[in-house]
Amino acid sequence: MRILHSNRSRLSRLMLLFVLVLGLFLAGWLGADPVASDASRTAERPPPPLDGWYPQSDDRWQDQFWLDVHLAKACEAVEWVCKTKFASRPVVRAVSQREMPFYIGQFVVRFDQIHICRANMARQVAEGDSRTLLTSEGLRLLLVHEAAHALDQERFPLEYNGRKRDDARVVCDAVREGHAQHVTRRVAAMWGLGHAFRAFRRMLECPRYPDTTSWHYRAYIQGQDFMDEVYFWGGRPAVDATLQRPPEAIEDFASPQRWLVHMEERDDLR
Ligand SMILES: [Zn+2]
After folding, report:
1. What distance in Å separates the CA atoms of residue 94 and residue 61, rounded to the nearest whole number?
2. Residue 93 forms beta bridges with which residues?
3. pLDDT digits (tens, 9 = 90+) for 186-202
4. CA of 36 to the centre of ligand 1 (A)
5. Extents of the domains making up the chain
6. pTM (predicted TM-score)
7. CATH 1.20.58 matches 58-265
8. Distance 264 CA to ligand 1 centre (A)
9. CA dist 136 to 49, 117, 125, 147, 157, Å?
10. Percent of the chain at pLDDT above 90?
């Protein structure tokens, strides 16, 4: 009897313990923080695929891995807009202000390299939404602009053919910069970065160096408007013919319509 009693009480103690443990488990489960459990699940997810995913962190300007990734995407997009493949794609390098004191980006023909400098971009950028230019968004658009120069240089090597700092040279610069901006605008639209492109254009409209304002305005702003219109009326053949033989007279540059008629007359649009 005593033994039996002892067994029964041990059984009931075990049952009590089981109910307690079950109760504690249920309480923990019901009271669990849903945000915390979601966060732990998120941490276990694999990283999103590279395609279409870009971090917005500023330090991407210095990170060679991300520079290469962004440049590869930029080259692809430039090839698509220009309907031509690179014979050899350029490489990109982040440089210091000491190496490149003024430009935010530059395609260096002799090395087939794109140089970029975030410190120079920071100097150019004003307040407000232009801050987006210091993130990966600005970096991506800058790389598209420079990649467009690289492809243009491959297809239509620019020697300036003895052109000095006269009208013809200024117009030639405007066609080159205008085309790079035309390509960048179209890629920005494809990538949903229209806001960043507008900030980019605004920054170029009002550069921080007063002595270069008129050159900048002519090259980037009027140049882009000119090439946009040449493309609108004549498509890629007209854009390519303009890069091949840019206008030499300011009057042609001032009127894209007149320039297209001029190209038709000399049979450039075949
Ligand atoms: Zn440029």
Report:
1. 7
2. 115
3. 999 999 999 999 999 98
4. 48
5. 58-265
6. 0.76
7. no
8. 28
9. 17, 13, 14, 16, 30
10. 46
